Amino acid sequence: MSEIDTSNKTTETNITENELHSGKSPASGLFFKNKLLPLVLTVVVFVLDQGTKFLIVKMIPPYTIGASFFGDFLRIIHVYNPGIAFSMGNSLPDTLRGLLFAIIPLIVLIIVLAIYFRNDDFTFFQRWAVAGIIGGGLGNIYDRFFRPEGVVDFIDVKFYGLFGLERWPTFNVADAAVLICGFLLIISFIRAMIQESKEQKRS
Predict the structure, then answer these.
(1) C-alpha distances in angstroms, 150 versus 40, 62, 121, 145, 146?
(2) CB 87 within 8 A of CB 81
(3) Is the CB of residue 50 less than 8 Å from the CB of residue 133?
(4) CB neighbours (10 Å) of residue 53?
(5) What is the pLDDT of residue 98?
């Protein structure tokens, strides 16, 4: 029995020493996988958003149509949105609009980042969804601080009169990322709640 105990202690000591020498630990590996790796999507969304906006600004004159697909179902245009997502808030005074749609989203984004890193209850999928939302938020916030004209929007889709809209409000990659990832995040929360409810009934 004493020999078994000694071998176990030796093994544990070797593992600990190996981790110390390599500078790695299980905790650091989990931190990278769970919290840092999903932020790759944040970078991808931001780069795609700013890259497409750069091309639109360079290739299509403001307030003109650059291309149409499937008749007029999908149009690539060049417009500036001084409001928030999907052109909401355009009618507000410039000073108030600048405060509401630049400073406040930045504060919200900082809060989301803090929750992202402090919360250990998110699933792996939920972290990727939050990372996509962060990337979209950064894309539009960057425009608000560095483009005096407003956020560049360029995706224009026909909506056939649904909800009183002949065309959906013009949007960009950042808007699409926030909308899609936000929808997936909500679905994942609902699914988790349903699964938890089923498990409680079984117990």
Answers:
(1) 26, 12, 37, 9, 9
(2) yes
(3) no
(4) 23
(5) 63
Q: What CA–CA distance (Å, rounded) separates 177 from 191?
A: 21
Task: Supply the residues annotated as catalytic.
Answer: 153, 175
**Measured CA distances, 90 to 26, 96, 120, 150 (Å):** 50, 11, 38, 10
pLDDT digits (tens, 9 = 90+) for 132-178: 999 999 999 999 888 888 899 999 999 888 888 889 999 999 999 99
Q: How many CB atoms lie within 10 A of CB 19?
A: 14
Quick: pLDDT tens for 179-197: 999 999 999 999 989 988 8
Q: Using an 8 Å Cβ cutoff, are 49 and 136 in contact? A: yes
Classified as helix, coil or strand, 151 is strand
Largest CA distance in the chain: 83
Which residue, chain included where needed, has tokens 């601080």? 145
173-202 helix and 124-146 helix, angle to the nearest 10 degrees:
150
